[in-house]
C-alpha cells in the first residue's frame, strides 16, 4: 500500500487493519472523518457503545467497529481493538512527511557538536558545543539544544523547545512546542536575611517513547537526575519538579504540578490539575482524579479523589454529603435548642459552653 495518504479500497484497509470486512471490497475510501461529518467516500469509527446511535445515522461510507457490534448499516470493518486499529487507519491517511536530512543554512550548530547525517535541523535552531543528535531526529525551527545535551534516534523536537545543558533524551521521544527541559529546580535557603539560591547542578533523563506536551517545564535535579521512564506521556502545561522520578507508562494530565523529589509509580495516572507535595511517593497503578491534592504517600494501587486525596468511594460519599451540610447544621442547632429547653424544664444545669453530649 505504501504511505501515500490514500485513497484506498475497503479490501486494502481490511488487510492493513487485520479487520473483517462486511461490504464491497472494491469501494474507494478517500479519508477518515468523525461520525457527524463523514461523507459517503470517508470512513468513520465507533470506539465506544455510547456512539452507536450516532453511528446509525452517519452518512459515512464505511465504519470501523468492535467485533461484536450489531444492527449497524454496512459496510463495516470489524476488529477486536478499534482504538488500536484507528491508530493504524489515521497513519495510513495522514502519513508523516518524509525526512529530508540536513541542516538549514540559518541554523547555528557548534563545530564540536555531533549531528548524525540522517538528522534534520530546521531554521534558526541553535545546537551548542558537544551536543549529540541521533539519526532520524527532527529539530524544528527555533529550538535550543544546550551543551552536552543528547537527543536519541527518531526523536521529534517541535518549535521553540528549550533543551538545556546536559539533558539526555532517548529514542522516539516527542517534545511539543514551548516545552523546557532542564530548567533550574526551585531550591532556596533563607539565611535570615535573603533567600539564597541552591545551585541546581543535576540533569534530566528522558527515556525512550516518552511524549511531552506543549509548555511543559521539567526541572533539572539539584544533584543526580530528574527522570521520566520509558513510555510516560505528559500533557500540556505540566510542572515536574527537581529530582522527580516518574515510572514507566505513567500518564500526567494538563496543569498537574509535581513537587520536588516525588516518586510516581509505574502505570500511574494523574488527572488534570493534580497537586502533589514534595517528597511524596505514589505507588504503581495509583490513579488520581482531577484536582486531587496529595500531601502524603499513597502506596496502594487504585482510584483516589479529593483534597486530601482519599479512596474514590470515600471521596464520593463525602462529596455527596457536602450539599446537605447547611441543612444538617440547621437541624443540629434546632436539636440543641430543644435539648436546652428540655434540660431547663428538668432543672438540669450545665456549665457555660458545654454541649448536650459532653460527658
Protein described:
- The structure is a single chain.
- The protein contains five helices and 40 strands.
- By secondary structure, the chain is an alpha/beta fold.
- The mean pLDDT is 94.
- The strands form six sheets. It has a twelve-stranded mixed β-sheet with strand order 8-11-14-17-20-25-28-31-34-37-39-40, covered by helices on one side.
- The protein has three domains: 8-93, MurE/MurF, N-terminal domain (Udp-n-acetylmuramoylalanyl-d-glutamate--2,6- Diaminopimelate Ligase, Chain: A, domain 1); 102-315, UDP N-Acetylglucosamine Acyltransferase, domain 1, CATH 2.160.10.10; 322-359.
- The protein is flat, with a radius of gyration of 28 Å.
- A hairpin with a 4-residue loop joins strand 39 and strand 40.
Count of helical stretches: 5
- Give the C-level CATH assignment of the largest domain: Mainly Beta
CATH homologous superfamily name of the largest domain?
Hexapeptide repeat proteins
Quickly give the CATH architecture of the largest domain.
Answer: 3 Solenoid
User: Overall pLDDT, averaged?
Assistant: 94
Quick description:
The chain has 359 residues and is an alpha/beta fold. The chain is 16% helix and 28% strand. It has three domains: 86 residues, Udp-n-acetylmuramoylalanyl-d-glutamate--2,6- Diaminopimelate Ligase, Chain: A, domain 1, CATH 3.40.1390; 214 residues, Hexapeptide repeat proteins (UDP N-Acetylglucosamine Acyltransferase, domain 1); 38 residues.
